[in-house]
Design goal:
28% strand; alpha+beta; Aminopeptidase
Length: 176
């Protein structure tokens, strides 16, 4: 299993089949999923498919939404990294509630962003969140991103953040 980054408190690593159980628990939690997509929890089958997709990405391109593991305990905390399902590089994260409020979100995001930009040369990275999720928006701002657009999904305003210098002509957003 490849480790992509270490911080003082976290390890960002590849996925393994053993990550299905903790990821399934994470996406089955209504509070965790409150601001994700339509706000609905996800099934174990969804978790299995997601982990399989991440394992495929790590084998074929090297970057993905990396597992975030708490270094001291070795526990699965969540994920942080990139996907390109939207046709653009979308940086995102999701953490189990037991790891909220400790500053892990920004710590992992800073490490994953460094890996994305320096190990993989990725640019034109975006993040998005509903406006009602100030914690995620705060992480985006701490990463040095600024708002580059908004759109509506599932009846909610979604704000898109990026590095303005990488989007000099603006950003066209999807339509609901």
């Amino acid at each position: 299993m490849k480790i992509h980054a270490r911080t003082e408190r976290l390890v960002l690593r590849d996925w393994t089949p053993g990550d299905v159980e903790p990821y399934a628990a994470l996406v089955a939690d209504p509070e965790v999923m409150q601001y994700i997509g339509n706000g609905q929890t996800r099934s174990r089958e969804y978790a299995e498919d997601f982990v399989a997709e991440q394992i495929h990405h790590q084998k074929t391109r090297g970057w993905m939404r990396f597992v975030v593991e708490e270094a001291a305990s070795g526990l699965f905390a969540g994920f942080c990294g990139l996907d390109d399902k939207t046709g653009r590089l979308d940086f995102g994260w999701r953490y189990a509630k037991a790891f909220w409020g400790r500053g892990y979100g920004f710590e992992a995001a800073a490490a994953a962003l460094y890996v994305a930009q320096n190990a993989f040369g990725l640019t034109r990275i975006t993040c998005q969140s509903v406006l009602d999720n100030p914690g995620s928006i705060r992480i985006m701002q701490k990463m040095g991103m600024s708002e580059i657009g908004t759109y509506v999904a599932y009846g909610e305003t979604v704000v898109v953040y990026g590095f303005p210098g990488e989007w000099p002509d603006g950003f066209s957003v999807p339509r609901e």
